[in-house]
Amino acid sequence: MADEIKVIDGEINRTLSDLSAAAQQFQPLFPFHVGSGQELEVLDELNQLNQQLQTLIVDYKQTLLDDLNATKKSVQSIKEADEKAANAAK
Predict the structure, then answer these.
(1) CA atoms of 83 and 77, how far apart (whole Å)
(2) Model-level pTM?
(3) Residue 53 and residue 44: Cα distance in Å, rounded?
(4) Nearest to residue 31, comparing CAs of 49, 14, 16?
(5) How many Cβ atoms are within 10 Å of 40's Cβ, its own excluded?
(6) Which of 42-46, 65-69, 79-83 is the most confident on average?
(7) Which residues, in sequence order, are CB contacts of 31 under 8 Å at separation 6+?
(8) Which long-range contacts (CB under 8 A, 24 or more apart) does 71-74 make?
(9) Where on the tree of life does the source sit, at the highest rank (predicted)?
(10) What is the DSSP letter of 3?
């Protein structure tokens, strides 16, 4: 069959695990108390932006991890469907 799609689940799972580990280790550390005690509006805005950026990155990280889990489940479903089709063809 020249048109078949081969899913190498071991390699996919290994890559997804590596990506998941890297994402879990990532810690966004932005200072959001710069110039504490100062009365400069720019510092207040910078602190607020840093805090928003940190929140955004944490949310992105969680979305990435959720997507990785969904991908793993999809690969497993494809593998199971392939096995059922192979057994039915016997």
Answers:
(1) 10
(2) 0.66
(3) 14
(4) 49
(5) 10
(6) 65-69
(7) 47, 50
(8) 71/12, 71/16, 72/13, 72/16
(9) Bacteria
(10) T
